[in-house]
UniProtKB/TrEMBL annotation, chain A:
Keywords: ATP-binding, Nucleotide-binding, Transport. InterPro entries: AAA+_ATPase, ABC_transporter-like_ATP-bd, ABC_transporter-like_CS, ABC_transpr_MalK-like, ABC_transpr_MalK/UgpC-like, Mo/tungstate-bd_C_term_dom, NA-bd_OB-fold, P-loop_NTPase. Residues 4-234 form the ABC transporter domain. It comes from the Bacteria. The keyword Nuclease does not apply. GO terms for cellular component: ATP-binding cassette (ABC) transporter complex, substrate-binding subunit-containing; maltose transport complex. The lineage of its organism: Bacteria, Pseudomonadati, Pseudomonadota, Alphaproteobacteria, Rhodobacterales. GO terms for molecular function: ABC-type maltose transporter activity; ATP binding; ATP hydrolysis activity. This is ABC transporter related protein. Belongs to the ABC transporter superfamily.
From TrEMBL, chain B:
InterPro entries: MetI-like (IPR000515), MetI-like_sf (IPR035906). CDD domains: TM_PBP2 (cd06261). Keywords: Cell membrane, Membrane, Transmembrane, Transmembrane helix, Transport. This is Binding-protein-dependent transport systems inner membrane component. It comes from Rhodobacter ferrooxidans. GO terms for cellular component: plasma membrane.
Amino acid sequence: MAALTLVNVTKSFGKTDVIKGVDLEVQTGEFCVFVGPSGCGKSTLLRMIAGLEDVSSGEVMINGARVNDVAPAKREIAMVFQSYALYPHLTVRDNMGLALKQAGQSKAAVAKSVDHAAAMLALEPLLARRPSELSGGQRQRVAIGRAIVRTPKLFLFDEPLSNLDAALRVATRIEIAKLHRDLDATMIYVTHDQIEAMTLADRIVVLRDGRVEQVGAPMDLYNDPDNTFVAGFIGSPMMNFLHAGALGMRSATMGVRPEHLAISRTAGQIEGTVSHVEKLGGETLVYINTATQGLLTVRLFGEHDYRVDETVQLTPEAARAFHFDAAGLRLR
Amino acid sequence: MATRTPLSRSIAAHAVLIAYTVIALFPVFVIVINSFKSRRAIFAEPLAIPTPDTFDLVGYTTVLKQGDFFQYFQNSMVVTCGSLFFVLLFGAMAAFALSEYRFRGNTLMGLYLALGIMIPIRLGTVAILQMMVASGLVNTLTALVLVYTAQGLPLAVFILSEFMKQVSDDLKNAGRIDGLSEYRIFFTLVLPLVRPAMATVAVFTMIPIWNDLWFPLILAPAEEVKTITLGSQVFIGQFVTNWNAVLAALSLAIVPVLVLYLIFSRQLIRGITAGAVK
Ligand SMILES: Nc1ncnc2c1ncn2[C@@H]1O[C@H](COP(=O)(O)OP(=O)(O)O)[C@@H](O)[C@H]1O
Ligand SMILES: [Mg+2]
């Protein structure tokens, strides 16, 4: 059954349309990630699912029931925010238990649920502290714990890792993935970071300017993008887009991932000069300025020695290239 | 410009601040020292510190013998604290509504409420008096509380709504998802975070109310509802002024404002220096 269904949902703030008609179905137990550049409407869409923002038109259904006019607290959802949003005047224990207390559960039942959630996230030593006495990573774990306590039908995450440093981000990402497996819960996760999207998602929804560009499993989007936007957004470093006409092709644009662009000092289709080299140990990124195709990126595995200003030749791997029409749509 | 060493700059800064403090406190200082002197000494040497020779508590004894003084004091306290309470409560609630909810005419309503900052309420004195007469509120403390609440609200709404816009949306939304009512969100989540702004508003609201002579004179001149500012006027006559008593009354009138100010000042300084709410 679908845990969440959106039917032609739109949102306008005054005259500006922020969400321009989104249709989506999220299955029970699925980890669904909304990804897109900043300002494309991800948070707005998530807040509409939570009921924090009215829907201008369309329908939001949770577990098959229309919830357009249901208050956030009654939607059986839980939300984790980028800024943690812990209640500053309450201890960790009270922060986690507040929703159940508000729902009228007995003290003993609340304590039991809080203890259970705290055990899952190893939060027991922190239960008596206040949010101001916690580090950023601990605060976010408490915020996640607060969501777990409610045993919601739907978990909503709004960029929960953005305020954490790189190492903590990876650790918390793994923790969220593990939580999803353990709880078997339906999760909707918003991020602008395509790596988070790729690593966590069962299914990714790519948004641009309030519209869904493509929906699919991470590898489907990577290997079979519908348009230049998705092709450019998914995958790092970004795909190279070549003027196909200059290479004698019939399509308007040819997309080639950096690992599918062969580099040689002797022969190739496109000539250019090395403008910058990044050596990462396991891989080497070479940035090449070309006269006909602009700046291109080549990704090589292992260590390679290219000097800046050296002249090199590039050849796209034709079989791995994607072709797009003038409007950016994929030609298959 | 020549660069100055931090030391000379710090000396200069302190000199300016000390000079300003001395100038600002001088009138208060003169009032307080003279309130402890005999009438003759006040006029002979107004700037002298009381000596055993000139020391005289006659001002204070006159004021305290004028039996109603404590009544005046109490009236002033009731009016000031009552008005302050309503200004802060209604001001904060209006500010929350203006900053939190999107509704038709929101901006217009904000402007309308802020308009009162520019238009002095005294322009409406005649109308206010007519209204108070019609509703039988003349010579009651209620009349003063109502007028001062109206007088304090515009600035309170203006300042508080700016601060409330800075309170994290996520926090309020977390409360909504956890099932808190809008009132609980306002009182338990938002108000504690704008406490410095509330203190600022409290000080700016309180002092003009405590010092006001105009409305007590017009709306509540009766003996049992006189405020202290009005009460002190009995010592200022057309022909003879009892300066000892006036100075003693003024010195006593400073005390409560000072106490209230000290209560708010910790928050106030935080409000001025922080300027923002996290
Ligand atoms: N309350 C609001 N009033 C007006 N415009 C808004 C409001 N909230 C968001 N927007 C606009 O909606 C767009 C999408 O915002 P948001 O959903 O926060 O983007 P994202 O989370 O994808 O970065 C932005 O252009 C933003 O300016
Ligand atoms: Mg966002």
